[in-house]
Design goal:
Elements lengths: L15 H5 L5 H8 L3 H7 L14 H14 L3 H10 L1 H6 L11 H11 L5 H15 L7 E10 L7 H19 L16 H17 L1 H4 L2 H23 L6 E6 L2 E13 L4 E8 L8 H10 L6 E3 L7 H10 L2 E3 L10
Parallel strand pairs: 1-5, 5-6
Antiparallel strand pairs: 1-3, 2-3, 3-4
Helix pairs in contact: 4-7, 5-7, 9-10, 9-12, 10-12
Length: about 325
């Protein structure tokens, strides 16, 4: 159950934050600049309002996810750090003496509460509106482009992401005691997610056997993050087959398997719209949608700048109809008139 009204934090110790959280702190600036109440409004339909135990406020859970991203922490460690880091507690709208959430609640929120939610559009729209209110966006032009995204969320394969994460606890151990290197399992050399998961399990087990190593926060944090990655990848293998990904072309003679993320940015380099398509889709087809979403986010669009992929006839006509100028080198198959 989530309460319909968010509570105002009352504590005799709130003045501590004025003493220990610097005025130029990133988290203080984010808290003072952004009204996160829009998260509550977007997520309220994911909760029961009149039954069950009280839930951790959705705004706080969302802020935990921001902290995870900014500081590269696991669910366990971001919650652990919020026990003693006053800048974290301040950002999370907690009283200094308040108890923290259970990490399992954050994991559930991350995997279930945000499921099927168009979070990207919501965050982009909010970012654009804040930038406009603060006078950061002054231009009336957007720049459009597409980036190739390999299957499963990012530009790295799941195995590459695991490989990158497994380096972090190893490196932390080497910095603490280089003699431990000989006791680590042999690295996986096969291009197989399953084999990489087996290696990560073995690595985690070896490090955990040495309690003296796990007492070092820099090792324990990296280990917790690797464990989280392993669990997420195992769940993905068990529950998902990526049938939407398609083979696309970066150049005439190179291919990739995955998706394209189509992005519009202001001249100030703030993303104003984004769409995701399967890899074989052409860049130019998404131009009208990027313009529409940018305008919906509050951006005034008088000019669109893109490469020749966007100069197809339909986009030229859409620009004339939509009242904006399209700056794009003409494709060889287009005849200007």
């Amino acid at each position: 159950m989530v309460e319909q009204q968010q509570k105002f934090v009352l504590s005799p110790y709130m003045e501590i934050y004025e003493l220990v959280v610097p005025k130029d702190s990133l988290l203080r600036q984010m808290k003072e600049l952004v009204d996160f109440s829009f998260i509550y409004e977007e997520l309220i339909n994911k909760y029961c309002l009149d039954n069950g135990c009280n839930a951790v406020p959705p705004v706080r859970m969302f802020k935990y996810l921001l902290l995870k991203s900014v500081y590269d922490l696991s669910d366990i460690d971001v919650v652990e750090r919020s026990k003693y880091d006053m800048s974290f507690k301040y950002f999370l709208d907690m009283a200094p003496e308040e108890s923290v959430s259970n990490p399992s609640s954050l994991t559930k929120f991350r995997k279930l509460r945000l499921k099927d939610m168009n979070l990207l559009d919501m965050l982009i729209t909010k970012t654009v509106r804040i930038a406009l209110e603060k006078g950061i966006i002054k231009s009336k032009s957007i720049i459009v482009d597409a980036t190739h995204t390999r299957s499963r969320y990012n530009q790295k394969t799941p195995r590459q992401a695991l490989l990158e994460q497994s380096k972090k606890p190893r490196r932390a151990v080497y910095e603490t005691d280089e003699t431990r290197k000989e006791r680590f399992p042999d690295k996986n050399t096969e291009d197989s997610l399953e084999k990489e998961l087996e290696y990560c399990h073995a690595l985690i087990s070896v490090i955990k056997e040495k309690e003296d190593l796990c007492r070092y926060p820099k090792i324990q944090e990296k280990l917790n993050l690797l464990e989280e990655y392993v669990k997420d990848d195992l769940e993905h293998l068990e529950t998902s087959q990526d049938t939407d990904a398609k083979t696309g072309h970066k150049k005439a003679d190179t291919t990739f398997f995955g998706y394209k993320t189509h992005i519009a940015t202001s001249e100030e380099r703030i993303i104003t719209a984004a769409t995701v398509t399967s890899g074989e889709k052409t860049d130019g087809k998404e131009l009208p949608e990027l313009v529409r979403r940018s305008r919906e986010a509050g951006m005034e669009v008088e000019m669109v700048i893109g490469d020749k992929a966007y100069s197809e006839q339909k986009n030229i006509e859409a620009a004339q109809k939509g009242g904006y100028e399209l700056i794009s080198r003409l494709n060889g198959i287009i005849t200007p008139h």
